[in-house]
Amino acid sequence: MSASNINTLMDLWAATLVKYNDTPPFSNFSDLYNTIDSIPLGDVPWQSFPVKFSEDCPNHAPVPQWMTAEYDVWFRDPHIVIKNMIGNPDYKDSFDTAPVQVFDGNGDRKYENFMSGDWAWEEAVGF
Fold first, then answer.
1. Closest Cα to residue 114, out of 124, 105, 104, 106?
2. CA nearest to 95, candidates 76, 78, 117, 113
3. What is the mean pLDDT of residues 13-37?
4. How many Å apart are CA 95 and CA 84, to the nearest integer?
5. Is 27 helix (H, G, I), strand (E, B) or coil?
6. Phi, psi torsion values for 54, nearest 5 degrees
7. Which of 115, 112, 111, 82 is nearest to 96 (CA)?
8. pLDDT at residue 92, as a whole number
9. CA nearest neighbour of 26 among 17, 65, 118, 85
10. Global model pTM greater than 0.90
11. Which of 26, 33, 59, 80 is most open to solvent, judged by the fewest CB atoms within 10 Å of its CB?
């Protein structure tokens, strides 16, 4: 989400909280970004790359601004993020790293999280 859209969101959120004499969790985009960057676990650096529309623009009509603009895509390396999550001791004994099927005493299937779902199981078993 762009910085200006985050600011708009925080303004709208603040407007809904006026009657409660409360404020949103972040005052603006900078406050949100600083909070994210101060998270002590992980230490995965931000990366970015530029993208822009690469097809031919229409010749017969005004060209929309998004077709000529360049945008920065910001991300953290998902491989390192997941590696850090799996290695986090806070998840010890509470993070399933393999698909699991759980059944109750009546033999009925229980779905507790992503790894207890059909998709994870079928991907691992190869159905």
1. 124
2. 113
3. 93
4. 13
5. coil
6. -115, 0
7. 115
8. 79
9. 17
10. no
11. 59
Residue owning tokens 């230490």: 43
Q: pLDDT for 59-76, tens place per residue?
A: 778 888 888 899 999 999
Find the Cα–Cα–Cα–Cα dihedral 83, 84, 85, 88, rounded to 10°: 130
- Which structure tokens are listed for 12? 């709208």
Distance CA 127, CA 122 (A): 5
- In degrees, rounded to 5, the angle at the alpha carbon of residue 47 between the alpha carbons of residues 4 and 63 is 50
Q: What residues does 73 pair with on adjacent strands?
A: 49
CA distances from 67 to 1, 54, 72 (A): 18, 8, 14
Alpha-helix residue ranges (DSSP H) falling in the chain: 3-17, 29-37, 65-68, 78-87, 118-125
Predicted local confidence at residue 68, as pLDDT:
86
